[in-house]
Every structure is written in C-alpha cells, then in structure tokens.
Design a protein that fits this description.
With 203 residues, this protein is an alpha+beta fold. It has one domain: Roll (FAS1 domain). 49% of the residues lie in helices and 19% in strands. It has ten helices and seven strands. The chain has a seven-stranded mixed beta sheet with strand order 2-1-7-6-5-4-3. β4 and β5 form a beta hairpin. The longest helix is centred in the N-terminal third of the chain and has 18 residues. The termini are far apart.
Length: 203
C-alpha cells in the first residue's frame, strides 16, 4: 500500500513539473528569463532584455519582490517599429539604441506588485519602473484589459511564477518621451502618426 502511494505521489509530482507554469527549482529570476526565452512569441522581448542588460536588473528585482510584466508579442513589436519608422536592428545593436530601448523596457515592468488579471480589472492605474503611470481600464462587455487606452492584454497570465507574472500584449506601451528618444537615435524616416497610434498597434 505504501509503495503504491509513493508511486502515485511520484507520478503526480512528475505531472506537476510538466504542466505547471511555475518553475520550482528556486532561481526566480533565472526561471523567468528561461520562461520568456521558451515562449516563441516573445523572441523580441528576450532579445531586448539581453542586449540592453535590463535582464540583470529584472532578475535582481524578481528575487527581491513581486514583478508584473506587460510583454509585447513579436508581431506587435514588428508592427510598431515599422509604423513608427524605428529600426529594431539599431535599437538592439547600437549603444544609443540600446539605452533608448532599455528606458522603454522599464515602462513595461511594474516592480513590487503581482497584478493578476482579476486585480488589473479592478485597478485604474499602475506605476511601472520608470515612474510614468499607465492607465488601466476593463471593458465588461469584451472582458479586455486596456493599457493607456490603446494597448490590450491579449493573453493574461501567460507566465505565472512565485514572484512574477507576465501578461502578453498586442502593442507596446511607450511614453511620448520614450518614443521621441527612440525615433531620435534609431529613426528611419519622419513618423506619420502620433505615438499613441503608432505604438498602440506595436512598439
């Protein structure tokens, strides 16, 4: 009986390791980066975190306190950089581009808070790492959470860990100053739309 119970517990533990979104071997920051890298829709985010060095700050933050991340899908980043006339290669390869991109990454991360979609639906505003507030609205009809009125949470709680939660977004949230800075250092041509329109459908 004891042997059968032990076998059942072992099987259950193995199943949890396979299906659970929470990686449990104790390295919260490292686990988060592995989970982001493993998601094929977040290649650009992973690249941005690594090339700018912001991954180190994120890993440290996750070890110390809860973190919420609004992670733009690759398609959103591609659409944004194209519509905003900003070179992604420049943002991820030049010193000035990396610095500008890093500042915008800070606008995607909320330190010290674990915002589930339920909590977001009851929140009017969150303060990301750069200190510039993001307005949050919840549409009861569509059940969509919107950020600053133009970016939507496309898949809430895509990654959940002990000290981190990641929501996938259909656009990249950017302040006007961040967009202007990225355009200044990595712009390819004058933009034809304001930042809210450009970055609402991508970066």
């Amino acid at each position: 009986m004891a042997a059968a119970m032990s076998a059942a517990m072992a099987a259950l533990f193995t199943l949890l390791l396979v299906v659970s979104p929470v990686l449990i071997h104790g390295d919260a920051g490292g686990d988060l980066m592995k989970a982001i890298k493993a998601d094929q829709r977040l290649h650009h985010l992973h690249q941005a975190l690594i090339t700018t060095g912001f991954s180190k700050e994120l890993i440290k933050a996750v070890k110390d306190k809860p973190v919420t991340i609004f992670a733009p899908l690759d398609d959103a980043v591609d659409a944004a950089t194209a519509a905003g006339w900003v070179s992604w290669d420049c943002l991820t390869s030049t010193k000035a581009g990396k610095a500008a991109l890093k500042e915008n990454l800070k606008h995607q991360v909320v330190n010290g808070s674990f915002y589930t979609v339920w909590k977001l639906a009851k929140t009017n505003q969150v303060i990301p790492a750069d200190g510039f507030p993001i307005e949050v609205t919840f549409d009861k009809a569509t059940h969509l959470v919107s950020l600053d009125g133009y970016v939507h949470v496309a898949q809430p709680e895509a990654i959940i860990m002990k000290n981190a939660i990641v929501h996938l977004t259909d656009g990249v949230i950017a302040t006007e100053s961040n967009y202007a800075n990225m355009l200044d250092v990595c712009g390819e041509a004058p933009p034809s739309a304001p930042p809210s329109a450009v970055f609402g459908s991508g970066l």
